[in-house]
Each structure stands twice: as C-alpha cells, then as structure tokens.
Specification:
globular; alpha/beta; binds flavin mononucleotide; five-stranded parallel β-sheet; 23% strand; 7 strands; Rossmann fold
C-alpha cells in the first residue's frame, strides 16, 4: 500500500498533523507527505490511499485547496481517500465532528468529493509566527471568546489521541 498525505497549511500545524498521521498508520505501508500548495499537478494514481488535510483562516480553506479538490475530483473519487480539517473552533466538543463543525459540514455538503472518512481537529495558536496585525486580531478574538492568552503563547489545542484514532481508520481504508 502506498499512501499520499497532502496538507494545506499556513503556519505549519496541519503539516505537523500530517507527519503524526504518517507515523501512526500501518508501519508496513509506504507513506509520502507533500505540501498541496506545491503539488497541484501530482499524479494521484501512483497511490492506493489519499489523505488530505487543510486548515481554516477567516472561515475558509485556502483557494489552492478548493482548486485542487475541483481539478482532481475524478481521481479523488476513484481512490480511497480521507479528509481532515483543522481549526480553532474545534477545541469545543460541540464543534469537533464533521457534522457539527460549520466549516467541515459546509465543505462536505458543497463538494462532490466523497472522502470515505473525515475528521475535524483543533489547531494551534502560534503568536510567534503571526505578523503584528494578525497577532492583535487573534489576541482580541481569543479575548472575546473569554480565553485569556498572552501574546507570547504557543498553544496547541489538538487532541492527539483523536488523531491517532483517525490514523487507525486510515490504515483500514
Ligand atoms: C489569521 C487567522 C485566521 C483564522 N481564522 C479562523 C477561523 O475563522 N475559524 C477557526 O476556527 N480558526 C481560525 N484560525 C485558526 C487556525 O485554523 C488554526 O490556528 C490552525 O491551527 C492553523 O493551521 P495551519 O498552521 O496548518 O494553517 C485562524 C488563524 C489565523 C492565524
């Protein structure tokens, strides 16, 4: 089995999850991890399983992600595939499944891609990677939702057990 894990990430957290999945899927499988943003013309038929992860900014995935899914729709629907979405709102248990997370639910409803399994993972706040405007924006956003966080903080909300479980399901695709 050859598995491809593609990630669409702005600050690296979705990539970190991709590497964690690769470590936790069946050890005997070959696994390649690639940045979706640099591999828009990749031949997906070299792989028996495809996993795609993408993060949310300002309520949306990146444009490259939407374009990739659209362009590769036929291939994606003929090869067993899995999808995971990364965002901050998913740190609340009421928003952490594909049926309850607004971004994931909306995307899966609107696309013709039919991943066999989907998951939603809470992301991370990485103030050191943000420019001053995003730092201030995220600081006030966290304040509004009553999370007191210092501008120096790096906070990971990801439930790695949940990612491990998802990796196990991928092994069975
Ligand atoms: C500028 C910015 C906008 C964001 N917008 C949202 C949002 O609308 N909803 C949400 O739940 N999370 C939002 N997030 C949180 C990200 O989804 C989270 O930080 C995630 O870990 C980013 O993953 P990445 O590093 O792979 O891009 C935002 C983060 C940043 C920096």
């Amino acid at each position: 089995m050859k598995t491809l894990i593609l990630y669409s990430s702005r600050d690296g957290h979705t990539r970190k999850i991709a590497y964690f999945i690769a470590k936790n899927i069946n050890q005997s499988d070959l696994c390649e991890i690639k940045d979706l943003h640099n591999n828009l013309n990749i031949n997906l038929h070299k792989y028996q399983r495809i996993v795609i992860g993408a993060s949310i900014r300002y309520g949306y995935f990146s444009i490259k992600f939407y374009k990739f899914i659209k362009n590769k729709m036929n291939d994606l629907n003929t090869i067993p595939s899995a999808f995971y979405c990364v965002n901050l709102i998913a740190r609340y248990s009421r928003y952490c499944t594909p049926d309850t997370n607004l971004y994931t639910k909306k995307f899966l409803k609107s696309t013709s891609w039919n991943p066999k399994i989907s998951a939603v993972f809470a992301g991370a706040l990485q103030y050191s990677k943000y420019n001053i405007y995003i730092k201030i924006l995220m600081y006030f956003f966290m304040k509004i939702i009553k999370n007191k966080i210092s501008l120096k903080d790096y906070i990971e909300f990801t439930n790695w057990n949940q990612v491990k479980k998802f990796s196990g399901y991928i092994s069975k695709l």
